[in-house]
Design brief:
The complex is a heterodimer of chains A (379) and B (375). By secondary structure, chain A is an alpha/beta fold. Chain A is built from 15 helices and five strands. In chain B, helix 7 packs antiparallel against helix 9 and helix 9 packs across helix 10. Chain B has a four-stranded mixed sheet. Classes of the chains: A alpha/beta (379), B alpha/beta (375).
Chain lengths: 379, 375
């Protein structure tokens, strides 16, 4: 064991010296994750509010103004213009100046008073389906509440009182009562940021030596391939642990996402994820022949897969089975589920042990594969 | 022609590395196929648990309305409230519908009856949409019951309810399929990454290898050198656009409603800015490692703040202002406009102008920096 340590030490030392010589990179590695989390935490959310609405009130009665007023009184719709001719809606939606149009026909007020159903029209830009689906829900609920109010009001006047909506919906939201998307997004952002940082930091480690011709010197030294991998990752593991804590600090103090579960398990999950990422970086480095190819592989294998295939934005259960199978190769997938369980739900090991196994498997695979490639001298 | 020899050299360099050829031409295709299937935001078949403590016909009717809507799939039926905890904790249910004891009796007696919906808020996006659907379904059912009561209590024809039931027409994407919306966006992301990755290494690699000095002592001028380096990348970019455009329309059947020619023209303008940005990174970086870090950390915010997945309207004012400096922001509008809405230059001229301005500025800046470096 001491033999291994003795062999690794000079590699670690050399790597540390190289990091120290380039302080810009070190600052980047330490500060960037926390900085990015601050920025994205504030910038990104999925809330569908302030949908741009154009009003075409052809009735101009007290009733039609009251009905339109309910729409505009919510935070879901913002009035961006009023028009007389419904045909003008087309261009406004085409140019993206409005997302929705509400058309109240002539006779709207009279219809309501006489108990007839007026032909209200809503035009919706459905190109963004999230906004579309949510807007449909809001519009229907608003119209329904209004209808019931009108009906019960008229029944009251007929002397029939005590009518109202018979069913009362009582929603209860767990873990994230205000449905703040930042709580949902923070684990995903952590995965996205950390993965990019760690892979990018090791992707050049071997290929740079290859390109400069120093790899041959290492290969003839008594170093074993695994020692080399360990020596090259250990410094980055320490750096990443520091930056993880910066990220957790930001999450807790700026976004109120405190660790509900066990800190030690969280640390274990993060470490395994980092080791997997660093291993992937080294594997890339042994495969690529030039730094340019290593760079492109690193970006292609981490950035979009972590963004799209991890469940960060796009739910995995929506994907076809074949693509779901591919997501098992994306370590961020396990990381995200485990992080949501520990950080947000405070669940115990029983809820995330399989994610832990997944992360462990990925890390072992990456380290083993890069050690094998290095041994064969292909590195 | 000195430019021709530079172009020739760049192509030779690409051709020599098999992995490079793979990355440039096969990776975009694979990525689009993989991600095209994955970028599905449709909220359908939300896994729901049911806890019916009442077992009344009224409750069953509401439940049928839930399952018939297509938005919910019942994945579990439990007899005790506590079991919901476990199902939500391990993700087997995202939502639970609870009918309390006495639900049917209350309704029949004309009292207000409560339905409880429990939602897992960690997935806030689906939770919000799920709650919205639930409110809609229960509202409808509630309205129906109310009208039935009126009919029972009043003589026929004595009262007309007169309901406002808006006819909602959805444009461009009537089935609200998110793939139609997202695949053009993925196309934009891939084009950004391919072109930026290529150029951000272009100059710094020669610098690190010492071959830049050799180029400088030749009679070639800086602008010729840059043009010669960029042109091959423009061609690679256009080839990638063609490949992924083919996949999007023929494989994913995303309707391309606008002009293909306009799409190519505006893609070319977009590439000016990505190439300019990459080149700038390449000229300011000391070595390839720095260039890689810088371009990785430039791409990340561009992707997140471009409006691809997160609506720009939702961002705080300051960040919204920042997004105006991101060329991808405009390109996403352009590509979605041409694909989904079929709009032409009349609706896209301001985006085109913005991309042109950013591209010209970035290219000019990198040429100036490059010349300074040489002198």
């Amino acid at each position: 064991m001491s033999g291994t340590l003795d062999r690794i030490r000079p590699v670690v030392k050399k790597e540390l010296r190289q990091i120290r010589r380039d302080p810009r990179t070190l600052v980047l590695l330490l500060a960037i994750p926390a900085f990015l989390l601050i920025m994205y935490g504030y910038a990104l959310n999925f809330d569908v509010k302030h949908i741009k609405l154009v009003l075409c009130d052809q009735d101009q009665s007290r009733t039609s103004r009251e009905f339109a007023g309910i729409f505009l009184g919510t935070e879901y719709f913002d009035l961006v213009g009023t028009i007389q001719d419904a045909a003008a809606l087309d261009t406004l939606i085409d140019r993206g100046e409005a997302r929705a149009g509400l058309v109240l026909p002539r006779g709207f007020g009279n219809d309501i008073a006489a108990g007839r159903s007026p032909a209200v029209q809503v035009l919706l830009d459905g190109s963004d389906p999230t906004t579309g689906a949510t807007a449909i829900g809001y519009i229907n609920t608003i119209a329904l509440t209004y209808s019931v109010r009108v009906v019960t009001g008229r029944l009251d006047r007929l002397g029939i009182s005590g009518t109202g909506l018979p069913i009362d919906l009582r929603p209860r939201v767990w873990y994230n009562p205000e449905l703040r998307s930042v709580r949902f997004l923070i684990p995903g952002l952590m995965a996205f940021i950390l993965m990019t940082v760690v892979v990018v930091s090791t992707a050049f480690s071997v290929v740079r030596e290859k390109e400069r011709g120093t790899m041959e010197q290492i290969l003839v030294s008594p170093l074993r391939p695994l020692d080399l991998v360990a020596g090259k990752t250990i410094p980055y593991i320490f750096i990443s642990i520091v930056s993880i804590h910066a990220v957790l600090f930001v999450a807790a103090f700026l976004f109120d996402v405190t660790i509900k579960g066990s800190y030690l398990w969280l640390l274990a999950v993060m470490l395994l994820f980092l080791i997997g990422g660093l291993g992937l970086g080294i594997l890339i480095s042994t495969i690529a022949r030039s730094q340019q190819v290593a760079f492109m592989m690193a970006i292609l294998l981490t950035m979009l897969p972590t963004f799209i295939l991890s469940g960060f934005v796009f739910p995995i259960r929506n994907m076809p089975a074949a693509i779901q199978a591919v997501t098992y190769l994306v370590p961020a997938r396990y990381f995200l589920s485990a992080l949501r369980a520990i950080l947000l739900k405070g669940a115990g090991l029983g809820a995330f042990w399989d994610q832990l196994v997944g992360l462990l498997g990925f890390a072992a695979l990456m380290i083993a594969a890069s050690a094998i490639r290095l041994r064969r001298g292909e590195g | 022609m000195p430019i021709m020899s530079i172009i020739h050299k760049e192509f030779a360099q690409i051709r020599r590395d098999r992995r490079m050829v793979f990355i440039l031409f096969a990776a975009p295709v694979l990525q689009l196929i993989l991600f095209g299937y994955a970028v599905n935001l449709d909220v359908r078949d939300i896994p729901a648990a049911v806890c019916d403590l009442d077992r009344s016909p009224e409750g069953r009717e509401i439940l049928a309305a839930f399952t018939n809507s297509g938005y919910f799939t019942v994945t579990a039926r439990v007899g005790r409230l506590e079991e919901i905890d476990r199902l939500i904790d391990n993700g087997r249910a995202a939502l639970a519908i609870v009918f309390p004891r006495g639900f049917g009796d209350d309704l029949r007696a004309g009292r207000q009856a409560a339905v409880q919906i429990v939602v897992d808020g960690t997935e806030s996006r689906s939770a919000l949409i799920g709650l919205n659907y639930a409110a809609m379904i229960i509202g409808r059912q509630s309205q129906k019951l109310l009208l039935e009561t009126i009919v029972r209590r009043l003589p026929a024809g004595a009262f007309e309810p007169g309901l406002v039931d808006p006819a909602i027409r959805v444009w461009y994407n009537p089935e609200l399929r998110s793939r139609t919306f997202m695949v053009p966006g993925v196309l934009a992301l891939i084009l950004l990454m391919m072109t930026m990755m290529l150029t951000s290494m272009a100059v710094v690699r020669e610098k690190e290898m010492g071959t830049l000095e050799q180029l400088i002592v030749t009679p070639i001028r800086p602008w010729q050198l840059i043009l010669g380096k960029l042109l091959p990348f423009v061609l690679v970019g256009l080839a990638d656009v063609t490949l992924i455009l083919g996949i999007a329309t023929f494989w994913f059947r995303v309707p391309l409603r606008g002009s293909v020619l306009l799409l190519y023209g505006l893609s070319l303008i977009f590439m000016l800015s990505t190439l300019g940005l990459g080149l700038l990174i390449s000229t300011v970086s000391q070595n390839q490692q720095q260039a890689m870090m810088t371009s990785a950390f430039t791409m990340m915010p561009m992707i997140l703040l471009s409006g691809f997945a997160f609506p720009i309207e939702n961002m705080p004012g300051v960040i919204q202002a920042v997004t105006y400096a991101i060329p991808l922001r405009y390109y996403i509008v352009v590509i979605r406009g041409i694909f989904l809405k079929g709009v032409g230059m009349a609706a896209l001229w301001d985006e085109a102008l913005a991309m042109l301005g950013l591209g010209a500025a970035l290219l000019a800046l990198s040429v100036v920096r490059f010349r300074k470096k040489i002198e």
